[in-house]
Automatic annotation (TrEMBL):
This is Pyridoxal phosphate homeostasis protein. The keyword Nucleotidyltransferase does not apply. It holds the Pfam family Ala_racemase_N. The keyword rRNA-binding does not apply. Residues 2-194 form the Alanine racemase N-terminal domain.
């Protein structure tokens, strides 16, 4: 609560169950960002039970977008800001849309979100590869996200730039240099998470 007492209101959470518990117990003016991998069967809880869910930063399918819209529409909760997760590194252990071969799908999901009453397209998110982050050079994964955002903004006719959620505790400085508007630095602030049982 020290950060809250210093005026911070935006917090991220990786796990739906923990977010449900924290959002019920902590002050209602906290703006929660869900930054973990979202399973389809958790969309109902996330959209239907967390009134102050500000953003979902890991949307990776049209099916999940439709579920979120459906369950958020069942109440008077505010819109959820959506970041599409893009797998710019191409690593198999990471979720997200393929920025090249999956562009048509990305565009379809973005257009669907634009038509929603309870979802709002806010930006794109990526997790850069560890090797890119440690290279000391420009991060090609971040560059790919910037390029995709420009292409998508033009295709959607957006009047303002999409936000870019990229960079974590180990590489946020380079991410900011390359245009990040949001960074995920929980490990630097709160320390490493203990292993889950």
């Amino acid at each position: 609560m020290a950060l809250y007492d210093h005026g911070v209101r935006h917090f991220g959470e990786n796990y739906v169950q923990e977010l449900l518990e924290k959002s019920a117990a902590l002050p209602k003016d906290i703006q929660w960002h869900f930054i973990g991998s979202l399973q389809t069967n958790k969309c109902k809880d996330l959209a239907g039970k967390v009134h102050n869910l500000f953003a979902l930063e890991t949307l990776d399918s049209l099916k999940k977008a439709k579920k979120l819209e459906e369950f958020r529409s069942e109440n008077e909760f505010p819109k959820i800001s959506i970041f599409l997760q893009i797998n710019t590194s191409g690593e198999e252990n990471k979720s997200g849309f393929d920025p090249v071969n999956g562009y048509a799908e990305i565009l379809e999901v973005a257009q669907y979100i634009q038509s929603c009453s309870k979802l709002q397209l806010r930006g794109l998110m990526t997790i850069g590869s560890v090797l890119q982050s440690k290279s000391g050079e420009e991060n090609l994964d971040f560059r790919a996200l910037v390029a995709l955002s420009k292409k998508l903004e033009a295709a959607l006719g957006l009047g303002e730039a999409l936000e870019l959620s990229m960079g974590m505790s180990s590489d946020f400085e380079e991410a900011i240099r390359q245009g990040a508007t949001n960074v995920r630095v929980g490990s630097d602030i709160f320390g490493s998470r203990p292993p889950r049982n």
